[in-house]
Specification:
By secondary structure, this protein is α/β, with parallel strands linked by helices. 55% of the residues lie in helices and 12% in strands. The longest helix has 27 residues, at 202-228.
Length: 591
């Protein structure tokens, strides 16, 4: 049996080694470890921002500079306590980061990293230009941090303070990622459309991790200023921002421990190269930068996940499966509409993309306790209609009413909160998360605890209820044996069933199923059909798009047929099957 470390044992080993190190190592190595701790704090923010949230930032060094310069100015020019400098630095950093985030986080693709480069450069030149900040010379005479009168003016003494902040940040980040708020953050990589459809405010989640990463960088800058006792703009330029990103990527951008590993490897390797390369080449220069460039190219080519995932393959770290508390309080359930009550009414819905009309004056209604199939050949406009109804897209004209309320143009997050949920034609899951965690995303709007409660791990009662609900829905759809399996390892048919469980976890009264039987075997289709009939019996309304005619015709109450964005037939399954227009358009023509 292969040896595996538990997370607590790993943390214990690290903590013991870290506490002993300053007592046995020379001053130079302690200084090197201090820098590793400072860099790891910044890299940890990038783990959240880039590795988990998928947002690339080259500007984190500027936030380090904000923390450093704020405390430097307050302590040297106003005689303020370094601890006041920390609070002021965090407040100023949060304010500036919020403004910068509001300007840049709506960007996507290559525009976002370009935006971070722009404000990173701007802040760097601001540090060097303002006379109050000492220009390019900087500020000196910064006092050491004092704790109860004990001045931390030696590397060995401030080491433990750096270690304290690093451990606190690592613990808070681990707690955050293992929570309702953390699942919302991790869902960002699965696509904003899926996350918003499950009730996640993706802009809020993006802003949250942006602010957290900025605060981590600010604290690193505060510690740096009081350790160095002077600051100048040099360490806060774009090259440092790139180096921080290198650290996160090299260590493993998706892992909390990866930040520490990356900071350690880059810092130590940089020091070694600076010492050895001039001796080997016979001349001085920034040769280590060239080596780093080659290393990054090779790593991105052959080891994109970084060093930490490689180390966990050599010595695995046990992943503790989430325990399901059978005594967890049940989540509140919504009251279903009366059987037969009209809950969805789409009138004259038209969606035009330039000269292409994807939906043309489409009308359909769905009643509580009814299964309606929306069918038609490829390109008929079925998925576009789904997107209009669920709020992913906005109709050009027409009106959509859900539960008597006009939801035309309303975003999918708000519509999901009213009781509508959906699956997707192309499965949208987070493959490295467990089946249980994927399904729990669907219950996001049924919880209220936020980032602070998650980081402090005070949301355990609510978290237990959310996980218990996710487990219940998985049992309901027949995936109860796969709770702790990675979702990406499931067969396609099982992944589609998982999506249904995730949609059910939001407690909907209207369920939109986009080709749910695609990829399922015969018995799986039978089980799916039984599940859909059971949901109907409970009073749920179901609107589904499906190409498997045998599956549809033996299951649904009514059928709406589309062709070229228009409705060409509507009625009972047996009536639609005999309709000449349907036979011509969809079933291959009349014999």
């Amino acid at each position: 049996m292969k040896f595996a470390l538990s997370p607590r044992l790993l943390l214990g080993i690290f903590l013991v080694l870290a506490l002993i190190a300053p007592l046995v190592l020379p001053a130079f190595h302690i200084t090197l470890m201090n820098y590793i701790g400072l860099y790891a704090l910044v890299a940890l923010g990038l783990v959240l921002l880039t590795g988990v949230g998928g947002l690339t930032s080259f500007g984190q060094a500027a936030f380090v500079g904000l923390g450093a310069y704020t405390t430097a100015v307050l302590s040297t020019q106003f005689g303020a306590s370094p601890w006041l400098g920390l609070l002021a630095g965090i407040a100023i950093t949060l304010g500036i980061a919020f403004i910068l985030g509001a300007l840049t986080l709506r960007l996507s693709g290559h525009y976002l990293p370009l935006g971070t480069i722009a404000w990173g450069i701007s802040l760097y030149f601001l540090f060097g230009t303002m006379e109050t900040l000492g220009g390019h010379t900087g500020l000196s005479g910064i006092p050491p941090i004092a704790i109860f009168g004990w001045a931390l003016d030696e590397g060995q003494e401030i080491f433990y303070l750096i270690l304290f902040f690093l451990l606190l940040a690592m613990l808070a980040t681990s707690n955050l990622l293992d929570s309702r708020a953390g699942r919302a953050i991790r869902a960002l990589k699965g696509g904003r459309v899926m996350a918003e459809a499950m009730g996640v405010n993706t802009l809020h989640s993006r802003m949250t991790i942006f602010l957290i990463a900025a605060v981590f960088a600010c604290i690193s800058g505060w510690l740096y200023a009081h350790m160095q006792r002077l600051v100048n703009p040099t360490p806060f330029g774009l090259h440092s921002g790139i180096e921080y990103l290198f650290m996160a990527v090299v260590g493993g951008a998706g892992s909390v421990w990866g930040a520490l590993i990356g900071a350690g490897v880059i810092t130590i390797l940089k020091q070694w190269l600076q010492d050895w390369l001039p001796q080997l080449l016979g001349q001085s220069g920034n040769f280590e930068t060239i080596i780093f460039g080659v290393m990054m190219i090779l790593m991105l080519q052959y080891a994109r996940d970084g060093i930490w995932p490689f180390l966990t393959k050599l010595v695995p770290v046990k992943k503790q499966p989430k325990a399901i508390d059978p005594h967890a309080a049940a989540l509140p359930r919504r009251s279903f509409p009366t059987h037969g009550e009209l809950i969805l009414d789409a009138k004259e819905v038209t969606r035009q993309f330039g000269g292409l009309i994807a939906n043309n004056k489409m009308n359909l209604i769905v009643h509580a306790g009814e299964i309606l199939a929306l069918i038609g050949p490829n390109g008929a406009g079925k998925s576009t209609m789904f997107n209009q109804i669920s709020g992913v897209d906005t109709p050009t004209s027409g009106e959509i009413r859900f539960l008597g309320q006009n939801v035309t143009g309303m975003n999918s997050r708000a519509i999901a909160g009213m009781g509508m949920s959906r699956t997707f034609q192309h499965v949208k899951l987070l493959p490295t998360m467990t089946v249980l965690e994927n399904v729990a995303i669907g219950a996001h709007r049924r919880g209220t605890k936020g980032v602070f409660a998650a980081a402090a791990h005070t949301e355990r009662a609510e978290e237990a209820s959310l996980l218990a609900e996710a487990a219940r829905q998985l049992e309901r759809v027949g995936l109860g044996d796969y709770l702790h399996v990675e979702a990406g390892s499931l067969a396609l048919g099982q992944q589609r069933i998982l999506e249904i469980a995730r949609a059910l976890c939001s407690d909907p009264c209207l369920l939109l199923l986009d080709e749910p039987a695609a990829g399922l075997r015969y018995r799986e289709k039978q089980a799916l059909g039984d599940l859909i009939k059971k949901l109907k019996a409970e009073g749920m309304a179901i609107l589904l798009v499906e190409h498997d005619m045998d599956f549809v015709m033996g299951l649904v109450d009514r059928v709406v047929v589309m062709e070229f964005g228009e409705k060409i037939a509507e009625g009972l399954p047996e009536e639609v099957q005999k309709n000449p227009a349907v036979l011509e358009a969809y079933l291959g023509g009349v014999e």
